[in-house]
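Appendix B. Raw example, untouched.
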Amino acid sequence: MGDREKVSLEDERLDLALKASNEGIWDWDLPTGEIYYTNRLLMFLGFGRMGAPNIFVEVEKFIHPDDLEGFQAKMDRVLVRKGILFASESRIRTKEGEWKWFRVRGVPVRDPNGVVIRMVGSLIDISERKRAELQLAEERARIDLVLESAPVSVYLKDLGGRYVRANAATAVRLRVGSVKELLGKVDGDFFESEYALATRAAEVQIMETGEEQEEELVHEVLEGGEASWALVTKKVWRGLRGEVKGVFGLSHDVTELMEAQEDLSLIAQELKTVHREISDERHLLRMVIDNIPAVVYFKDLDSNFVLVNRGMANLVGESTPEMVVGRNDSDYFGTELTLSARSDEVVIMRTGKPMEQKFETVHWKDGRVTWSLTSKYAWIDGEGQVKGTYGVSMDVTPLIEARKELERIAGVLERKNESFEAQLNLAREVQQSAFPEVIPSLSYGERQVACHHVYRPASKLAGDFFEVFEVAEGVCGFLVCDVMGHGVRSALIVSMLRGLVEKQRETLGGKPGEFLTGLNGGLVHLLERASQLIFSSAIYGVIDLKENEMRVASAGHPAPILQRDGELGVLEMSGALKGPALGMVGGFDYGEMVVSLEGFGTEGVFEVVGEGGEEFGLGRMCEVLKVDEGLKEALGNLVEKALDFGEGEAFEDDVCVLGVEVVDL
């Protein structure tokens, strides 16, 4: 084979290779400025053989302004800085004025001095690929808008339980600074170990069996002990060919919903490669938004629906989301909501400012009225152009109806409370009427028994009371009782005890021990069917001016304070003389002791508690009562001192102070 035949064969091979690659060839002679284009390249640019321009010389005319600087920099790298390859992806204007994307390659030929005298390269139309990349970017931007704008935690985990994708809400839920800190980690890095192990076991079962976890209410506990409630949905994450890739989940924080039953949820998705990944991620997006309990929708510039999830279709009564596409609010809702929604969306598209957490009353075309919580945002594509709006809504009708029912119940309870309050006030008046303002004095010969008291109940119905009555000529009986607790129950026991006192005062009034024994027996009998322990402490004394003595019996009550020969002290009562409180032990026989007449008794004030938990105590009572003043003034001063000791706080128990003095006339 001759040299000419070899050259012809090489040319034929080159031509076939160029046709197979779909590329055009250019050859630029720099000293003359002439350039040669193959037919395919001329076809790309729309020029004929004659009059085709040199796009490398007239760059400002044929290279897109946004790509011009980069194009020239790459050319200078070859021409000036002796680069070995020119490579650029730029938009080039065709003869018809249309901008198309081209990949341009070229290699320089240099003279002995290193000056480029010729460049030869290829050019191929990549417009379709660029359009596909832009379409993918727009799809990713749309999904990212939904993911990052929603408070719903959306995430993907691989077969090993590692996070491979998540939205910002998931980072907030797991208390980390950014999504990047989640990737590659597992639940055990964030949650308490028991919860993390249980979660992993459930996910393994989901992947093995395909059984999905639908809106399960779970109690989540973070590693530091912080707990919350969430509605969790988890399903198998499958690829387009059906292979198991892991699990995807949505965790909807319903901690507040557990307390007030309100919340929102949203969706998530991720994208992959240019063609195949678009379909995969659309499938994933559709799967996510159709399985969350929130209404998600996209609207165009005219507020027509262009994309909705299954929740939206169910809300408006359509069988599939596709049946909602192309319609608008007026097809389902009343005029008021339609106009209000359109007005909000116009403002959002004009200003770019979102409308978040708006409470709306929804009037339907069929006359129904419901309520929703709605957030709307501007829908902006990858090039920054407003394409419409997108929104997330949640039906809060059950919460509103529950609140109305609670308000109704609160009104009923308020009325009942007012009625109960009136009854308590009446019972208080009846109970208080039994306490005399002034206790009559008892005289015998040249001596007199005078009584004074201070009575301050701790609640509307008191559990403390006292009685002073004449037993016989020259004989006076006095009783102080403290029923356990306060309120209605204590008031009922007070009524029982008073009835028992009235029944036996004439027969046993002069015998303190037998008197308390009778009270105890009667109270135990009355309380036999009570389901709770109820008792009352009591002290009963009898002053006998004839015998010039005082007889005292105690049922679990604090001992009285006596004054003898000008000295104050607590009456010491031995264990045999101080029996149990009334109502505690049936059949108990109470003893009694005899003391001189000079003295007075008190109860209740020693229980006042001061700073640090210290009690006022009998010792302080004696110190206060040593002041030389009348008995009535001394009792009032005692209560005020106790109140001061308690730093002005109201007494926790009823205050019932009785003072008895024997004076010569």
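End of appendix B.
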